[in-house]
């Protein structure tokens, strides 16, 4: 049987044998392993190719100084596992409780070696099919009308073994160092090779090229032993607490900002690195000049014959020579292994380090090729967390669900509820869902309304960028309108130049919820599914087109949106206005009264009381409702003023004599009032 299966997996193309799999994943980093987990849970045919001998090889080297900036919050005061993932930035999604990162490190900012161990265990304990020591060196296409996407993907490894796949998932991340070439760049040391021993920098003067976390991480390591450190970059420093983007400078690495602003010799400069030039003198010192000073000059003639900026401007900022120059400019995607037939093109502007992909994470050039993990960050670059584990673990799951529907006819998972559960369903998700919370403005919950708004279908964490394609991508229909639940920051609250600590920065009253600054839920209502044209023409910085109605749930200091008056009541009234219905919950007595006084019962009475569903009443429950002012007190009393023992027949006789509404067993313990 094994021989037969092996033979069946072998194909021949152009005389060369190759192995076939439905899905090929390149890279066994976090996103590759996450994709493998979902494919394995669905019993799909897949393989993961990893060039190293173990998963997560990137973390075996980076960050160089071994401290991750992804938080590991082990305690939240809650036992809800979904809520806790909001503050666990390192765990991948799985059913195995052993594979929570808090079991691998007690540090708030863990050591990178803990991540290496975690990824090794994730692959081993879940028995993921990873083929190690296999470097894919070439990828091309084979046209075939019978293939899933009209073509197969042909992969070749370093040993010239060939593989064939129907769908290709690229999870290689961005690992090629960004290098800027200018005169003298050969004297620059790279972040990937520079010494991490502070003693090697003792008494030296250092220039760092770059302004991101790797640059500040390097500076932080040698801050206490150098003469001074200067840092040069094209853009100004961006603080993550101001931009609300976790890829910007984090507080754990910003010691150099203190020494700069408190005048302790270190400093930050802005300038285009391509305009620089470095000259090395006879003593080995490195002098910074500008490229145009070297035009038409012989740099080998010696530094004495070259004009330096300080020769014309004697207070030039970088006139002091440096002992070392270190390049910390981040990484970019490796395009070199992809044949031109795949049309894998780099993005534009500040996204050029990523491949061009659609909001569905599928390549713009090739159907069936999906980019996962850090390399997919062009979808939400500088906006959300899609370039980091705590973001792309959810986008990877979204891609898997899209593939399940496209290739296997498995619709996007959903749950159908009666319309009476609409408010509760939204409140539950905005208070505990981790995917909405981490991938704010990118992933959204979708509520599809059934005919006459008697029920709804709930879809979780769908990419809003392909909302117009919802019916095609999910296998679900949206003929009767929909709600979209998303998390957002205030429109003008985030930015490198923003003061996020200004007085009265928070909004506390429901009527001003639309002015909320901090992350908060926003509900969009559409009477019909937006079109692709509406998606393209949506207002700048809006995640969605202009809706028929929109509701902001006011921001909350505790991110706990369960306050009856501030959060739940305004939401319920918004939903009622959109649906032209009454979403309140009622006691049985109220439903009984409505049955005789109204032509149409509220949904709660129709779907509960009339069907003999709900909670049975008791004297204690009734008394609680009376004391709270939710029910009239029809309890009969004797002449002494004492209530007789609970008797259903006696109570009903007394009520009939008083021409009052009969007290029936409580079908539902719910409030008739707005509370």
UniProtKB/TrEMBL annotation:
GO terms for biological process: ERAD pathway. Keywords: Endoplasmic reticulum, FAD, Flavoprotein, Glycoprotein, Oxidoreductase, Signal. Residues 634-656 are annotated as: Disordered. Residues 646-656 have a biased composition (Basic and acidic residues). GO terms for cellular component: endoplasmic reticulum lumen. Gene3D superfamilies: FAD/NAD(P)-binding domain. Its cofactor is FAD. The keyword Endoplasmic reticulum applies. Probable flavoprotein which may function in endoplasmic reticulum associated degradation (ERAD). May bind non-native proteins in the endoplasmic reticulum and target them to the ubiquitination machinery for subsequent degradation. This is FAD-dependent oxidoreductase domain-containing protein 2.
